[in-house]
Amino acid sequence: MNPLSLDSYIAISSILFVIGFFGVLLRKNTLVLYMCLELMLLASTLALVAFSRFHGTLDGSVFVFFILTIAAAEVAVGLAIIVALFRRRQTVQVEELNALKH
Fold this sequence. Notes:
Elements: H1 6-26, H2 30-55, H3 59-89
Helix pairs in contact: 1-2, 2-3
């Protein structure tokens, strides 16, 4: 069984990042927008792990642990903000959340 090459991992990471990027640009729902941001973050961690594995160091893996720790806190805060916005405005559509004071 042949292991995947570094180019394969980088291609998969790039495709995931581009899907997340276009999701952020094109979607209007805040939950979907948030999931696309998380997809971009995970695509970058995949690239870090791939580089770390193919260079034989643990530097990328150590960065991934820090990134995932920060991402967990980000998810908790981000979802709390989205729930608070939904409770206040009764919508999760980005166009309707354009004013800071209602």
